[in-house]
Every structure is written in C-alpha cells, then in structure tokens.
C-alpha cells in the first residue's frame, strides 16, 4: 500500500494517542509563522478545528477545493478532512481543537451539535460574545480552580451552540428554513461517513435511519437539491480523489480501499462521475 495522506496530532507533531476529552487553544501564528504562513495539506484523524480569524485573509484548501476567507470569520474543519492553509502574512486569530470523541459525548446531550462539523465551512461573524467566550475558555484551560471541569465544558457547549446558530442562520439566509429535514440529512451524512465503504444501497441507509426511502429522498432534495444516492456517491468520490491526489496507491489499491471488489468497475464508476479515468485524474494533478 502506498504512502498515506500526511497525518499529524497537531500540525508538525507526530501522531499519538488522543485523550478522549482533548481540548486545546493556541494562537494562529504559533504554527503558521514558522511555516511562512503556509500550512501544507494534511489531516487529523480524530481532531476537529475551529479557526477564529480576527485580522487578515487567505485561502483554506479543503479536500482540494479552495475556501477563500476574510476576517472576521470562523472556519470549521471536521476530523479527517484533508486541509491546508495559505495566509496573508501577520494574519491573527486563534485555533480551537477538540477531539471527535469529546464532540460525540457532547452531542449525546444535544445531537444538533454534531451538525457543526458536518463539513468544512466558513462563516463571517461580528466579533463579540464568541471571541470573549473563547478567551474565557483559554484562561480556564490554564487554570485549575474549583469547578474547572464544569467551567470548561460549559464554555465549550456555549461556543458550539453559538457556532451552530451562526451556521444555521447563514444556511437559512441562503436556502430558507428547512425544518426537520436538516436533522435527518445531518444523521444521513453521519451514517454515510461510517458506512460508505460497505456498498449499502439507499434503502439500507433509510432503514437504519428509521425512515422510508421516499422520505429520505424528499429531505435530500429539499436540503441539498440532490438525491441520497448523489450524497453517497459524492462521499465515495471524495475519498477516491483523496487517495489519488495524496497517496501513491495504485488504482487497484484505491478500489479495494473503497470497498470495490472489481477495480475495473471502480474505474468505470470514477470515470462516470469525474469525466476522466482515475489514472488520467492523477496525471492531470501531476
């Protein structure tokens, strides 16, 4: 098997066991300045990021797609997403990092919180409560006064709730409110993330979600403008492009990695969705 996508604990640090309740805050330039404001594409298997950009601008590359931003804004990067960062020199901000396991625990109390990290995204915001709470959380992380654990968790929950509301407000402005369909699609995306290598059909996903295939199709159409099958195929194609761009696996190895039993079928699948063969896609990317 070929070389994998670069994976770090925090950027530049070797992978290591992540504490179940890992939470960390640091200044943006702690890692960007020594790297001349350019962070090469990499991934964190079980760590999620929230970037609070207070000044400056740049481009976040997420899964090969550019995400331009200008401060003040918030940038969300879910665990496992291949991302890089190119910043204007002297940009300022903070980076909040938490373990995906910690997020899963918090989402047991309010499952809407999982939607915060459903995909890489950028949202403008007016500096205020979010920045203040982040500053208070950073202070609490470096302080061991009585009630420390409760204070940290309370501030973190408040930050995630603020972020969720900000993202929902932005989505509603762009697409209009979607009611309960948003929750169903968030759960579908999560299930796809867990099972996309298994080859399950849409009916199996609908059954696992406790809804009919028709209801799942309707929700997908309302929220994304596409079908459940398209979302599933998009996730498979995302992983295929990752492997072809960031590893030296052969096309056959990529096919088996994605759960295809026949590499020829995988090549036809990829060509149908990308408009070129896996080999041609890799060659074009250099």
Tell me what the structure shows:
This protein is an alpha+beta fold and 286 residues long. The protein folds into two domains: 23-175, Sandwich (Jelly Rolls); 181-285, Homeodomain-like (Arc Repressor Mutant, subunit A, Orthogonal Bundle). The chain has helices spanning 29-32, 100-107, 129-141, 148-175, 181-195, 202-209, 213-224, 228-246, 251-257, 263-274, 278-285, and strands at residues 23-27, 38-42, 47-55, 57-62, 65-70, 73-77, 83-87, 92-99, 121-124. A five-stranded antiparallel beta sheet has the order 1-8-3-6-9. The chain has a four-stranded antiparallel beta sheet with strand order 2-7-4-5, with no helix packed on it. Helix 9 (251-257) packs across helix 10 (263-274). The longest helix is centred in the middle third of the chain and has 28 residues, at 148-175. It is globular, with a radius of gyration of 20 Å. The two termini are 20 Å apart.
Task: Give the arrangement of secondary structure elements.
Layout: E1 23-27, H1 29-32, E2 38-42, E3 47-55, E4 57-62, E5 65-70, E6 73-77, E7 83-87, E8 92-99, H2 100-107, E9 121-124, H3 129-141, H4 148-175, H5 181-195, H6 202-209, H7 213-224, H8 228-246, H9 251-257, H10 263-274, H11 278-285
Antiparallel strand pairs: 1-8, 2-7, 3-6, 3-8, 4-5, 4-7, 6-9
């Amino acid at each position: 098997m070929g070389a994998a996508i670069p994976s770090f604990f925090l950027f530049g640090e070797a992978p290591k066991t992540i504490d179940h309740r890992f939470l960390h805050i640091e200044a943006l330039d702690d890692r960007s300045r020594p790297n001349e404001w350019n962070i090469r594409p990499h991934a964190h298997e079980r760590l999620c990021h929230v970037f609070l950009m207070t000044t400056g601008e740049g481009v976040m590359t997420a899964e090969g797609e550019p995400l331009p931003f200008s401060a003040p804004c918030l940038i969300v990067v879910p665990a496992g997403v291949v991302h890089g960062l190119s910043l204007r020199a002297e940009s300022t901000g903070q980076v909040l990092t938490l373990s995906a396991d910690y997020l899963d625990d918090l989402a047991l109390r309010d499952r809407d919180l999982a939607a915060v990290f459903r995909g890489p995204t950028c949202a403008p915001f007016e500096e205020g409560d979010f920045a203040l709470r982040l500053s208070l959380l950073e202070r609490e992380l470096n302080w061991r006064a009585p009630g420390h654990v409760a204070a940290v968790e309370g501030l973190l929950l408040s930050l995630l709730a603020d972020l969720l509301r900000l993202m929902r407000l932005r989505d509603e402005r762009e697409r209009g409110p979607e009611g309960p369909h948003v929750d169903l699609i968030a759960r579908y995306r999560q299930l796809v993330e867990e099972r996309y290598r298994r080859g399950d059909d849409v009916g199996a996903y609908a059954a696992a979600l406790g809804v009919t295939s028709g209801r799942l199709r309707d929700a997908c159409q309302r929220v994304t403008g596409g079908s459940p099958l398209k979302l599933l195929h998009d996730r498979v194609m995302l992983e295929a492009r990752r492997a072809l761009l960031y590893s030296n696996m052969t096309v056959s190895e990529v096919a088996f990695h994605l759960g295809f039993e026949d590499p020829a079928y995988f090549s036809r699948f990829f060509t149908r969705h990308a408009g070129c063969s896996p080999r041609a896609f890799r060659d074009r990317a250099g």
